[in-house]
Design goal:
This is Sn-glycerol-3-phosphate ABC transporter ATP-binding protein UgpC. Its main location: membrane. It is a peripheral membrane protein. This protein is of the alpha/beta class. It is built from 7 helices and 10 strands. The protein has a 6-stranded mixed beta sheet with strand order 6-7-8-3-9-10, sandwiched between helices. The structure holds adenosine-5'-diphosphate (2 copies).
Length: 225
Amino acid sequence: MATIELDQVDKYYGSYHALRKISFDIADGEFVVLVGPSGCGKSTLLRSLAGLEEITGGTIKLGGQRVDNIAAKDRDVAMVFQNYALYPHMTVRENMAFALKLRGDNLVDRNAKVDKAAEMLRLTPYLERYPKALSGGQRQRVAMGRAMVRSPKAFFFDEPLSNLDAALRVDMRSEIKALHQRLGATSVYVTHDQIEAMTMADRIVVLRDGKVEQIGAPLELYDRP
Ligand code: ADP
Ligand code: ADP
């Protein structure tokens, strides 16, 4: 799986037209940020890319294959949400290993993958703790770790930092960007924060009322004379 291709993507919720003829491609290794005001369709588009939302018209392809034709277990993508969605009754290690257990990795493999991700995320000292004993930033790192251990080709982030305080948000921006580069992943990142978009994106897609209003590198969009 390499590029992500969107061709004339349309989405209706009943009679409400949430996405309107959206077409653009995302290259392998790119960090694309979807930005725009609340309700413009960012989450809908992201969920559609991940195959979690059925579109009404047009096509979405991951690595040349229509996303709706790829079985969920073969979709080589991971979502990271703002609310972490960690299991409270599981330790950090168990949280991070959960998806690997489901797909049948053995204990030795699971531990090796979790240890490696924990080291990259500076979570090694916390592996045997429960989520409630972690700070917000640490929980967000565990959520990242859970996504990373499966070595997905693409990460889909839905406002992952919006629950964190301002200083931590700034640190986590550069951490996420560094991880993206180190993993050689393709990332699509939703935010309503223009500064976040500016500092993180290779390319920004500005959505308004379900349409692509602008698309380009940060300086092309915001540094016009
Ligand atoms: P954003 O992420 O940019 O805030 P969303 O993609 O969440 O926007 O929502 C886009 C529009 O679609 C909004 O007007 C929202 O109310 C509507 N919408 C989102 N999900 C649903 C749903 N499941 N059913 C009906 N309308 C929805
Ligand atoms: P066709 O390919 O002839 O349009 P299908 O039965 O294959 O018919 O598609 C059913 C519906 O799924 C169509 O409305 C199509 O727009 C939609 N669709 C196409 N690509 C995707 C996708 N990637 N995700 C979800 N729905 C899609």
